Amino acid sequence: MVVPKKLWPLWMASAAAAAASPSVTVDAGTILGGQCGSGCSVFYKAIPYADPPVRGLRFEASKAYGKYPGGRLNATAPAPACIQFGDTFKALGKTSEDCLCLDIWTPADATEDSKLPVKVFVFGGSNIEGGIRDTLYDGCNTADDGAILVSINYRLGPLGFMALESAGIHGNQGIQDLLLGLKWVKNSISAFGGDSCDVRDKKCLQGKSTIDLRSVYFSDEYLKTGLGAADVTIPSVHSHKFWPYVDGTIIPEAPSAVGAKVPAIFGYNQREGMMDTLTKYNSTEAAASATPAAYTKFLKDNFGPAAAIIEKYYGLSLFQSTPLPVIAAISTVATDAEYKCPAYASAAQTVRNNVPAWVYEFTHNSTCVWLDTMPQAFIDDFGAAHTAELPYVSGNLHFDFADKNSSCTGTSDEWSLSKEMMGLWTAMAEKGNPSTNDIHWPEFRATTNGSDIQGMVFGNFSIPGVIDFSLRRRLVAQYSPQARELVGQRL
Prior knowledge:
Layout: H1 8-20, E1 23-26, E2 29-32, E3 34-35, E4 41-48, E5 72-74, E6 81-82, E7 95-96, E8 101-107, E9 118-121, H2 140-144, E10 148-152, H3 157-161, E11 163-164, E12 169-170, H4 173-188, H5 213-225, H6 235-238, H7 255-258, E13 264-269, H8 274-278, H9 284-288, H10 292-303, H11 307-313, H12 325-352, E14 357-362, H13 379-382, H14 390-394, H15 412-431, E15 453-458, E16 462-467, H16 470-477, H17 482-487
Parallel strand pairs: 2-5, 6-7, 9-10, 13-14, 14-15
Antiparallel strand pairs: 1-2, 3-4, 4-8, 8-10, 11-12, 15-16
Helix pairs in contact: 5-12, 10-11, 10-12
């Protein structure tokens, strides 16, 4: 090819850009990626791991993807989110049934010989919403930290979790998507510089790379969001009817009964319940007008016969010193029932399996809101609400994913906290133990009444400390068998 002299600069720039574009080759073909803004990491987006689950494959187990057309895949544009059944993630944009893709971020200098730790991220959203294209989950900064991050899309709502045996719909489609995505990672991640070692392989060190979803995923996310009894749940659970279920095959046993079978971290945010509770009000004035009758109704509606037991331990008098006592009471009950108590139960059962576990409490109050459904004016009231830890684990503290016009950004201390948390999570992926050279994270040890549990407290800094589960355990333990049966947790 002869290029006219006047076009040489343009041609040379194009050639240089093409040469700089990262690429990897896997069984399906060559994948072309892009550069992160820092220049220290690269990304590959919307890599299909399964055939589109449409027409005859709708409601079926996902099928592994074949070859890329022409042997090449341009992986520089974000994947569509799977069809949504909620409105929390308003900024996700395009949705589609053809959504079974994954994103990968790697250090720019990673090679097939790097054998870097691999962190696999499964987004939350009550199984009805969310997606890997959410900029909150961007992995450029995680890759800067010397690890590989993989984020996996999976089917949601009825397309992902409906089971109707009479129609031949067996359920757990979304879980099968994730398992197939993990299989793709195991088979292909070495091409990106990752360690393809699987924790189920006894020749490997503990906890490396991909996870056994059936052992770990539910014991954290699933247990956090459901207590096992339809009459003992909070409103957000009543409105979301799509859940994984024990089918004897994909999920052989109730996760709450068996715990994790690989090293695992269990944790919660100090004010998890504040997200759902506070966002129901348009202003702090409206939230302040909530009456004691509203609290009583909340307990009766959601805990039925156990309402009086719970109110004994969570009386409104305990919250009168807070700016919004009724909101604080509802939020605390929701936090303990949905997140804190299940975290303890999961960790306790895991160590009974002679498998190490670690627990944490995230208490930091962020400077900026992190979801577009959160008014900045409520930031002090939200505190360490549900999902507050995500910007820190991913290193995304510019917070423009909540509001593109926002100039709010993390403080220097918050960036330091984020770096510490990313390092701990990377250590867990690398060696099955989250401790680093700088920070020792003590292993979980159950105590008689759940008090004085050693773990990690993420406040303004990452500090090993004591986490108190005792009051919350009495909620279900002291009133056995009635309360234990109602709540459905094995302690």
